Structure formats: structure tokens, C-alpha cells
Amino acid sequence: MIISRLGLFALFLASIGRSDAADDITWLVNYDARALPSAPWVAIGKTNAKIEADGLRLIDDGKESAHYRASWKASPDDEIIVEATLKAGAITGSQPKKPATSLWPWRDGAPVMVQVSDGKHQDGLVIFPAQATNFTDRFVPMDTTNRFHTYRLVIRGTDMEMWVDGEQKIVGQNAFWKPADSPEPFIQFGSSAKTATGDALWSSVKLGVRKSSATPAKDPIKLTVSEPWLIPRDDVKQTRPYLHDMGKGLLLMSVAQGPDALYEPYGLLKSTDAGKTWSPITGLDKLDTTPLPCVRRPDGRILGASRWTWPQPDGSLTGKTVHLDAEATKFTMIDSRLTLPPQYMPEKRGDVVVCERHIWNDADGGTTMVVWSRKSVKLPDGRNNTERWSHLMRSTDEGKTWTYFSTVGPGGEPAVCRLSATEQTAVIRGDRNSRMKQMFSHDAGKTWTQPIELEVGKVLPDLVLMSNGVLACSYGRPASCLMFSMDGGKTWPSHHVISDKVGFNYTSIREISPGRLLYTHDASKLSALTVDVEVIP
Length: 537
Fold this sequence. Notes:
With 537 residues, the chain is mainly beta. The strands form seven sheets. Strands 1, 2, 4, 5, 7, 12, 13, 14 and 17 form a nine-stranded antiparallel beta sheet that branches. Strands 24, 25, 26, 27, 28, 29, 30, 31 and 32 form a nine-stranded mixed beta sheet that branches. Strands 3, 6, 8, 9, 10, 11, 15 and 16 form an eight-stranded antiparallel beta sheet that branches.
């Protein structure tokens, strides 16, 4: 076999492990799993490590987490490449009897992770059995345990692409966001978990740099975030906020007051000072019948529907409709009846239909409300499964009856936004893979497109079409985040972490003045802040 000089040179470059000719990468730190890591790698903690036939086995059995760490020299003009080839083993969550996905990496650490810092920002790769993620809000649903996979992070400024086996999975705008813990650049791999356990077989880990292969996309949005303020309550713990703008200077907010269980109590609060202070509405506090979606009707009164609905012995489904006066001081409450197709109606204990936050007035004088259903079903192989679906329902009699209008898509906790008289978009909490899904309607909600998986997640999205034409979406867990679209949700080129504190991380937004959002979240206590949104020309 004849090998050209160019081929010999390429083989030489590969053999010394310093450069990748195809990508023009200079590798600064390289571990090949032929022996236990040595200089420049340093063990942090007492490592449970051994060399096996396929690589380095690193185990966190809960006694003491440990990882290997190496320093490197960063240049602000360089693009950073991090590459790791590994196969994940068993991984547990941060709490007993909780799945691995209950782990929140910035708070809990992670038993299988690669973390990198350039001295200014830090982030990295976290491996779950069915996901590869960064430390915050980007998710790649996949089986990480079936074989070795090669994960690559491409870092430009605060952007961080994520690739798996040579295929780009994450665009990663502003994914490399978190301020660095120290000014010393580092890379580390292994476990940083506090209580979770796990193991992985590592084939290689390396970090390199190259001249930037692309210019980071310009963020079209400039944010100015205020200092947060607490929304205090001494007699009950408030979580999971749902904001409603009634106009005329009146804001309402539904808040959970229980342990995250079916038929837990809610409270309805009101504010007349742009969300600075809140007070519970007498008679609509600490009740399972408290309204969650609320809308001001054309006659000035406010209509609300209870979050919870109740299956009846005859197979029907009832809820509560609340009519409040214009100032939200007095109210009446009546029974309501909801009708969905049989496949979505509750039949067993634990089946439920939930009224969500978005509700609006229709041109014909009626009202449309967003709901979602959760129902136990049998799979073809006989196993039990839980299906969640999001829907639109309509009322033409002031909430006495609600009838099925359309199914938006699979999943619960939907947010639906009207972009025009005919165009709508919806973002729905992801299933177990944690990625949120997005759908579009071009006929005023009658039919919906197939779901598109977003790269972000994961809980309780909220949508607001702002007066400047920007579509804002808040979402949470394990941080409280915002993303923005300039084209009605077709693309999301602007992502921001508003708070990295941890709680339920349920969020809600409303535009309280042109270009200013009120942002509420419950991490670690119920709080609010304002976000000024400026479009950069």
C-alpha cells in the first residue's frame, strides 16, 4: 500500500494527539483512557476508578464524589472544543426513589459530567440514562447507555453547540452563560454529585482550541433585569404562579398553596401597583375551587375557571366558574360542565382535566380556554401508560358549559398565544425527555401542526406577544429562563437565564407597560422582577 506524504503527515498529527487536521483543532488537554489519568490531570476527591478493556470506569457509589481536573490556557479569540467519548451506566436522582431526571446539576452536582470553564463562564455536559444535557436547559433525548457515544461541545463566547456522534443536536445560543467560579480555566470529568450516584465507562476526554469557525449570531434582544422582590406570605407557602392581566391597572395571580398534589388548594391574589404588592381575594384563598385562568369580559366583569375539575358518578365532568366584579372584590361561583371526546374524559382514579392559564374572548362573544387532560391507558402489550393531551374548549354561556374545540397536541402544561385572527402557536411542557414541544395553527385553533421539539425545556411555559412584536416565552427547571422570537415562534434566537435559584421553577410573564415584562417565579421563594425588552436594530 502506498501512502502519500500528506497522508503520513496526517497520521503523524493524529499520533501525537496535538492537532486535528480536518477541524484545524489544537488539542491542549487529552486523556485516552489507556491508564489512570495523570498530569496535567489531578484527582479531586477520592476517585473510585479502574482501567477496563474498553476504558476508564469511574464510579460514584454515594460515599464520596470525585472527578479529574486539568487547567489550560484560554485566549478570548479562540473557539473551544470539548470532546468526550463514553458509555453511561446506572444513574440515580438526587432524592431517594426519584428518577435520575430529578437531579438539577448546578445545585446537586452530577454523577456523570464534563465541565469546562474559560475563566469567564462555565458549563458543560451532563449525562442521564435517557438524555444528554447541559447544566441548565438544553436537552438531547437519547439512550446514553446502549453504546459508546462521542459528545462534542463547540464554545464561541457564550454560545455552546452540542453534537452527538458527529451530528449537531443543539444550537446552544447563550448556553455557556454561567459566570465562572474562578478565573482559572479548567476542564473536569467524572462526578460532582452530592447525593446522586452513577457510573460511566470513559474512552477519551479532550479539550482543544481553534480559530473561530463561525461568527456567533447576534442576540436581537437586549434585556435589563431589575432587582427581584419577594411576594411574602406568613400563613402559607406560595409556589407555581400564574399571572393574568385584567387591564385597567389590575393584575391577578393564581398561586399553588399545597404539596403539588391533585386537588391541592390555590389562592387568587390581586395587585394594583404593577406587581409590587399582592393581597389575597377574600373567599378565593386556600381553596381547591379557586379560579386559575381569568379573563376580563367585554362588559368589564371578570370570568374565571377553577383549575381543578371533578368527575361525577354519571361520567360527566364538572368544574367551578367564578364571576368577579370589575375590581375583583366581589364574586359569585357556579357549577360548570365540561365535555371532551371520550378518549380524554377521566375514568379512573388519578385521571384529571386541568384548566390552564390562557383564556381569551372570541369575536362572537364567547370565550376560549386552554385545558389539558391526563389519563391512564393500556399499551398494546398490556402495560399501563399515562397520556397527556392539551386542548382548547369554548363557552358561549359565560362559563356554565365548556365544549371541546380542538386538540392542540401531546403533553400537559400548555401555553397558547394568538398571533393574529387566524395564527396561533403553542408551547407544551415536554414529556419524560424534558424537551418542550411547539405547534402552530393557521385557522384560529381549529387544527394544529405536528409537534416540533425545541432544544430547551422543561416545565410550565408561558407565552406573551409583546406590543413591540416580540414573542416572549418563560419556562423553568432547573433555572428560571426566558427566550424570545422575532418571527412568531418560528425561531428562538435569544435565550436568557433570569435566575439560577432552584425551587419548583414555575414561571409566569405579562407585559405591564410597553416593552416591560413582569416576571414571577418561585425559586426559592415566590418572587417578582421586571424585564425590559429592547429590540436591537
